[in-house]
Amino acid sequence: MSVLVFLENWDGKFKKLSFELVSYASKVAEMLGQPAIALSIGKVDASELEKLAAYGAEKVINIENDSIKAFDEQVYTSMIAEVAQKTGANILVLANNNSGKALAPRLSVRLKAGIASGVSRLPVSINPFVVYKKVYSGKAFANVAIKTEIKIITLAQNSFEVVESSKTFVVEKMNIQPDGKLMKTQVKEVQKQSGKILITDADIVVSGGRGMKSPDNWGPLVELADLLGAATACSRPVSDEGWRSHDEHTGQTGKIIAPNLYFAIGISGATQHLAGVSSSKFIVAINTDKDAPIFEAAQYGIVGDASKVLPKLVEAVKEIKSK
Amino acid sequence: MKILVCISNVPDTTTKVKFVDNSTKIDVNGIQWVINPWDELALTRALELKDDASNGVQTVTVGHVGLISSEPTLRKALAIGADDAIRINIEAGDAYAIAVQLAEAIRNENFDIILCGIESSDHNGSTVGGMLAELLGYPSVTGVSSVKIENGQLVITREIDGGKEIITVPAPFIAVVQKGIAKEPRIAAMRGIMMARTKPIKVVEPQLIDSLTEVINYEMPKPRAACKYVAADDAGQLIVLLQNEAKVI
Fold it and tell me: Where along chain B do its domains lie?
């Protein structure tokens, strides 16, 4: 029996999300008295694989295969299912991002395994197996029992702290030949944004709404974000107006994020916006309307105009940075 | 070409949710039921594809698992422009049970493109589309922000961390769609509402299938501490609090 955690890589590298996943899997494994095994598919340097040991993986299985030219959901499902069977996995952990959302449900059918997605804590109990997850876009939570022998969990990003716990560690190269007939996805073109901090990865997100009044007013907001090493985001009306790119839209139908700190600047805090950001650990609200619902969700607030408040914040950050 | 859009019937996203029966069920009193927002965008895109005759889309069907109580939501989908609907007549179970019901009901209907929203706004599962694909043995693409038909070939945009991929995939296939798939949800016009009354809803009797998971109970989020205000003139003080008190910068 094992807890198997699937890790994607980004150009051969892991990131904080990967370490959150391994930390989570290894804690679940500890609860069950089983080993945590990490599975990585694709070309990843040995030094990257070794990083996983620091978070409690006892074994890393690496499948490298030149015939896998694209992320094909059927091909990956087949490979992960085969590894799950070989390692006797009774718990599978994946990320609750687009790749995890692609693979977990297919694996659920393949392995006849119940699934709980967007889980943000360790299991509430092992027998019965109950996990705690967000429902109604953060307006409530549910305790969900998974009744099958094999269980699948997708972990919400930024919800579980990375925990260092070194274990003796082995890397095993596994040779699994994917079924060529399944390979139906052909990637024609990849468009990457470089140099930008991803909103979903960022510890701090600085977000602007209609209260910014014009796309020309974003300068100080971007400066604040740059000084804090933060990502920039926006509310839906702002992206709909074309003031900012759609990639920046956070909210129910946009990006759903859980940073340590979220600045909502000129954002009133409609339910749909809060659905995307309510898992933030701290929310700062800056709004001219003292009755705006965003202040109910926020821990810190300034009632004031963004154009006057932002330059003061920029100055204050410069000051603490200079110390 | 035939398109199926799977739709979920969910409480309007502005609903303040409450639970009853020892927090095991949502209180349905006063809830406005709507098409799940992502499914509504998926339906809009399907209709856009059909509008352009060169795409060769003959029909757009909506598929749904639910009791007769969700027919108003299906009628709304028909009013927006879907040609017909399939309703599997059982209260929705967990994602697996829903996917099995859908798969069995449509297995022989030969849909070329199946669109599913990336999540439902009630259970936030993100699972039915992928499960349906696996049950039918179709390829799937998840996180889709564009579906086009170019010279009879499906061209898909998949959102990945920090970028996008342009993909081709043969039909039949399932796209699990997200933001970007359509700009604004299409709204029903009066003519559509009139026509929807006579469009067919095929009612399919359900399979006997057990859920793999079960909600034990619901909990409300812990109330957050009251907001601490900093005067606008003294805004810099906020940064000091974030550094020394919250310790997040």
Answer: 2-217
In order of start, what are the domains of chain A with their CATH numbers? Answer: 2-182 (3.40.50.620), 204-322 (3.40.50.1220)
Residue B219 has pLDDT above 90, yes or no: yes
**CA nearest A89: which of A8, A7, A6, A27?**
A6
Q: Encode burial over A179-188: b for 16+ CB neighbours within 10 A, e otherwise.
A: eeebbbbeee
B2-217 classified as CATH 3.80.30.20:
no
Partners of A303 on chain B (C-beta within 8 Å) are 229, 232
Nearest CA in chain A to B135: A109
Q: Indicate which of B27, B34, B101, B124 best probes the interface with A, i.e. most A CBs within 10 Å of its own CB.
A: B124
Calculate how close chain A gets to B56, using CA atoms only, in Å: 22
Q: Give the list of residues 6+ apart from residue A238 with CB closer than 8 angstroms, or none.
A: A208, A209, A210, A212, A244, A248, A249
Burial class (CB in 10 A: 0-12, 13-18, 19+), A248: buried
Least Cα distance to A109 among B56, B126, B104, B212 occurs for B212
What is the C-alpha to C-alpha distance for residues A164 and A251, in angstroms, rounded to an integer? Answer: 32
Give kind and range of the element (H or E) at residue B98.
helix B95-106
Report pLDDT for A194: 76
Contact yes or no for A312 and B235 at CB 8 A? yes
**Cβ atoms within 10 Å of A36's Cβ, excluding its own:** 29
Nearest CA distance, A129 vs chain B (angstrom):
10
Distance from CA of A168 to the nearest CA of B (A): 31
In this prediction, residue B100 carries a pLDDT of: 98
Tokens for A115, please give them: 């699934």
Residues of B in contact with A323 (CB under 8 A): none
DSSP letter for each residue of B65-82: E--GGGHHHHHHHHHHT-
Instruction: Please check whether residue A57 is in contact with residue A169, taking contact to mean a CB–CB distance below 8 angstroms.
Output: yes
Q: How far apart are CA A168 and CA A57, in angstroms?
A: 8
Q: What is the reported pLDDT for A165?
A: 82
> How do strand B173-177 and strand B140-150 relate by DSSP bridges?
parallel
pLDDT at residue number A66: 85
**Nearest by CB to A106, which of B37, B130, B163?**
B130
pLDDT of residue A179: 84
Structure tokens at A146: 């998974």
Which stretches of chain A score pLDDT less than 50? none
Those residues whose C-beta lies under 8 Å from the C-beta of residue A266, and which sit 6 or more positions away, are: A208, A209, A210, A211, A212, A213, A286, A287, A288, A306
Nearest to A185 by CA among B163, B175, B108: B175
User: What mean pLDDT, rounded, does chain B reach?
Assistant: 96
A58 and A170 Cβ atoms separated by less than 8 Å: yes
**DSSP assigned state of A250:** B
Residue of A nearest to B128 (CA): A105
Residue B160: its chain A contacts at CB < 8 A? 71, 98-99
Beta bridge partner(s), residue B20:
B25
CA separation for the pair A262, B173 (Å, rounded): 38
